[in-house]
Amino acid sequence: MASNKKVRRRSGAKLWSGRFSEPPADLVKRFTASVGFDRRLAEFDIQGSLAHARMLHAAGILNRRDLAAIRSGMARILAEVRRGSFPWSLEHEDVHLNIERRLTDIVGEAGRRLHTARSRNDQVATDVRLYLRASVDRLLALIGRLQEALLNLAESHADTVMPGFTHMQVAQPVSFGHHLMAYFEMLARDAGRLADCRRRINRLPLGAAALAGTSFAIDRMMVAKDLGFEGVCENSIDAVSDRDFAVEFCACAALLMTHLSRFCEEIVIWMNPRFGFIGLADRFCTGSSIMPQKKNPDVAELIRGKTGRVNGDLVALLTLMKAQPLAYNKDNQEDKEPLFDAVDTVETSLAVFTEMLSGLTVNREALLAAAREGYATATDLADYLVRKGMPFRAAHETVARVVRYAESQGRDLAEIKLTELRRYSRLIGSDVFGALSLEGSLRSRRHLGGTAPARVRSAIAKARKALR
Ligand code: ARG
Fold it and tell me: Most CB contacts within 10 A, which of 95, 168, 226, 431?
């Protein structure tokens, strides 16, 4: 390592190099730099800096000329960032120092005054919150679009009968629309969780400076208002040190992915020819390089797979925080990549999933045939016996014997004749066949939250209203 004690203050020298007798080793520079990934915060960094500068001016800390210079310099930098011509440099470590250095190169002295009453610690916390707030808003819009697509599909299939499963075995007949609406509910909770998390994201750390606040008479509420924050972080130490809002976001994201993943799992199963419940548009499937007959539901599988990444992002952030003493530690620089990854993964997954739904075709006949196969109305027969006076436990046993009989004959329940049924209970009359039909079974479950097509349609109408 070069140990040149008389390092000159070159214009490329670090903004914090004054205290040091030698520059950091190249290896250390590369190891500690974050500009490779945190440059995606650039627009938010500029936004935060402008709000800070406006406040410094209002508080009489920065004069009008300096503020004007900072504004015009930042406008130019923003254009460079958007155009892709900003001269990002590893030499300047992170997004904050890159932009500050560039500002000073453009406007001179005024750029060197911007960092008054501020630290990169409250700066980065502010940037991440601004970034995450914008991300949450995009995700909420995407969830809304998916919910809308689900409502439309559910509406056309309120009357479509399918076997509902428990333990992946045929359980009871349900409306396919009802099944889809289960996912609508999950997504509604996901959106609610994100909206709730947004409230805690939406607080301003700026003003906390390094950790102890600043000796300048700053106006934090002004900056908060300017940046659209609902309030400020009330404790300066907490403001720079905690990333719980990011952990919370990742938890919301992981749950959302889990819901998509379960749906994807069903799509994969339903598309298997043994089920044949649905088809996917060719543009959402891929083939095999060796097996010419293959049409694979890759998109669904990938979303299911990517759920693991987001779970990993959550665990990464939890682990990042768990042993950090107060206040800011460089560990926190590691919050960005998992957070960005979670946002990106959820965003693309939601978008592609919604598109995939638009190309989904439903095979009503296959669903109906499957519902006829597994004695799905056995519970309805038991309920029928209960209505005739038999205790439910006895009815359960009786029907179990009927099912064994039907099974030994290779027949469906509805195919067993009345005389045969009456061998199991004299309570059974000719009105039993209403209870044994799939449509009758569905129609009878008309209570709130039930699968009766009429109820499903009213649930859809209610959901549509809530979505608006
Ligand atoms: N790049 C840093 C981060 O992401 C910015 C804050 C650095 N602060 C400091 N005192 N080194 O956390």
Answer: 95
